[in-house]
Specification:
The chain is mostly beta strands. The chain folds into two domains: 128 residues, Immunoglobulin-like (Sandwich), CATH 2.60.40; 259 residues, 6 Propeller (Neuraminidase), CATH 2.120.10.80. The N terminus is likely disordered.
């Protein structure tokens, strides 16, 4: 049965007429290659994706993404391929640290000349650590090598090309996320402790402080900063997750945020233009080229009807079937202009017909208002829905680039 956001049809029409600005996800142009274990960073609002792998061998590839044009370009490759490197930028130069392929190696990329240079080596071999820049220097934190999980912290000064050991992180761990807020470095999640640790490092005093634990313990996540909050995104719990949780350092509290459209781990992120961009990774089906962004984007609120004609809208999370969902047209919105390839219901995509790339969608007037609606069948085995949930969110985009979002009630059944 259809659930509308407001009780008044007049008010609903106003929502359709006036898009709203809200925190939401966008699915963007995929990377040129499918890669996991990449490193990522931003220089002058251009995002760079470094290395990773599409199989078992470390890649040397470097791709640049322009958020303004939504396009990718290939840049000069790294001198050495790396999987699970850490990256951070200082003074317009992007640095890559360690990773499988060269665990102590450091290389610097200058976008102005599209060239790489080799820098002084780290004192500790490491892969799957984190890196963060504060006041013109870079701190490389945690990770692992062939002998141990690491708690060590090294400070790199690009002006002198030298390294200094700093106070160790309280919890040795790898596959963690790292971000900086107001000069404080936050290390979250990872493998080595419980997986929900949040520890804060103050470079001024060279000290660590334990903070409120992350609600969802996980590893192989990514972390970044948006609007003064630390976002922990994706990773692995007992399975792949698309959970997004934000930490507010002022209140020392966590809050759940809209889930990432794609469930995945082994990802990297970079922030630019008021959004966090998340690249590549792995899901249950393989290695990904996915590029998704979270930020304050303009969306049109639409009405949807899960399992048209049924009440309640029951969902069996253990099934491997499909669930129909209708996107309803209105006087100011044409549902048939939604691109089926962009539709996600509870993070699950539309089923494809057979071995083709044609989406399982059709056009019909579901609510008999004389307007054509778009009905698509979504795969249930990829739903990112928690037991006890009472609603599901649909996102998508029209062929002309208009983002949409709708919500309908659901009832989880065994």
């Amino acid at each position: 049965m259809l659930r509308r956001f407001v009780s008044s049809a007049f008010a609903l029409a106003l929502l359709h007429s006036h898009p709203v600005i809200a925190q939401s996800w966008r699915t963007l142009a995929p990377m040129p290659n499918s890669l996991f274990g990449v490193a990522a960073g931003a220089v002058d609002n251009t995002l760079y994706v470094l290395g990773g792998s599409s199989s078992v061998s470390p890649a040397t590839s470097v791709f640049a993404y322009d958020p303004g044009s939504g396009t990718w370009t290939t840049k000069a490759p790294m001198p050495v391929g790396r999987i699970g490197a850490a990256a951070a930028a200082v003074n317009g130069v992007l640095y890559a640290f360690g990773g499988t392929g060269d665990e102590t190696g450091v290389e610097a990329y200058d976008p102005r000349t599209n060239t790489w240079s080799v820098k002084g080596r780290m004192q500790t071999p490491r892969v799957l650590g984190g890196a963060a820049a504060v006041n013109g220097v870079i701190y490389v934190i945690g990770g692992m090598n062939s002998t141990a999980l690491l708690s060590s912290v090294e400070r790199y000064d690009p002006s002198t090309d030298t390294w200094t050991q700093k106070a160790s992180m309280p919890t040795p761990r790898t596959m963690l996320g790292v971000g900086v807020i107001d000069g404080i470095i936050y290390a979250v999640g990872g493998f080595g402790g419980i997986g929900n640790e949040l520890e804060a490092y103050d470079p001024a005093s060279d000290t660590w402080t334990k903070k409120s634990a992350m609600p969802t313990a996980r590893r192989e996540l990514t972390a970044n900063v948006l609007n003064g909050e630390l976002y922990a995104i994706g990773g692995i719990t007992d399975s792949f997750t698309n959970a997004v949780e934000a930490y507010n350092p002022t209140t020392n509290t966590w809050a759940s945020k809209p889930v990432m459209p794609t469930v995945r781990s082994d990802i990297a992120s970079a922030a630019a233009n008021g959004a966090i961009y998340v690249f590549g990774g792995i899901d249950a089906l393989g290695i990904l080229s996915t590029n998704e962004a979270f930020g304050n984007f303009t969306q049109t609120i639409v009405s949807i009807d899960i399992k048209p004609g049924s009440s309640p809208n029951t969902i069996n999370l253990g099934s491997s079937g499909v669930v129909p969902v209708a996107i309803l047209s209105s006087p100011t919105f044409d549902a048939t202009q939604v691109d089926p390839a962009t539709i996600r219901l509870a993070a699950s995509a539309v089923r494809l017909n057979g071995q083709s790339d044609k989406a399982s969608c059709n056009v019909r007037d579901v609510n008999r208002d004389g307007r054509p609606d778009l009905v698509c069948h979504v795969k249930t085995d990829q739903f990112a829905i928690q037991p006890g949930s009472t609603s599901a969110v649909l996102t998508g985009r029209t062929f002309n680039g208009q983002d949409i979002q709708g919500v309908d009630s659901i009832q989880i059944v065994p």
